[in-house]
Design goal:
This protein is an alpha+beta fold. It is built from four helices and four strands, in the order H-E-E-H-E-H-E-H. The strands form two sheets. Strands 1-2 form a two-stranded antiparallel ribbon. It has a two-stranded parallel ribbon with strand order 3-4.
Length: 113
């Protein structure tokens, strides 16, 4: 067996990735989001993990544990937090394309496959 050329972090799933990056890089900036011209807000890995946990807990408290939960919206930070909160312990995430016609979105929500 040959030697590895570089070290890597072994990750088993998204939840494992979030836990390990929180441990390793918790105080480091994970996101820098532009809120207006020359003004940004930053979030550390720890803050992001806390947001995911808090949203996940709220969804469970709403009775959504092990349910299918649709997520629709623009490709942005909030969408990612919702996606990760659902997939990392709440239920089954159903990402929907925001460009679908309204009638198709209604059908997908009312009659899941």
């Amino acid at each position: 067996m040959s030697e590895r050329l570089y070290e890597y972090l072994e990750i088993t799933d998204l939840k494992d990735m979030l836990n390990k990056t929180n441990e390793l890089y918790g105080k480091n900036i994970a996101y820098k989001i532009k809120i207006e011209e020359n003004k940004y807000i930053t979030y550390t890995h720890k803050e992001v993990r806390n947001m995911i946990n808090e949203l996940g807990t709220s969804l469970i408290n709403m009775g959504l544990k092990n349910k299918r939960i649709a997520v629709i919206g623009e490709n942005r930070f909030e969408w990612e937090i919702a996606y990760l909160a659902i997939v990392c312990g709440v239920g089954i995430v159903v990402p929907l394309d925001k460009s679908l016609p309204e009638n198709e979105l209604k059908n997908l929500i009312k009659n899941p496959m």
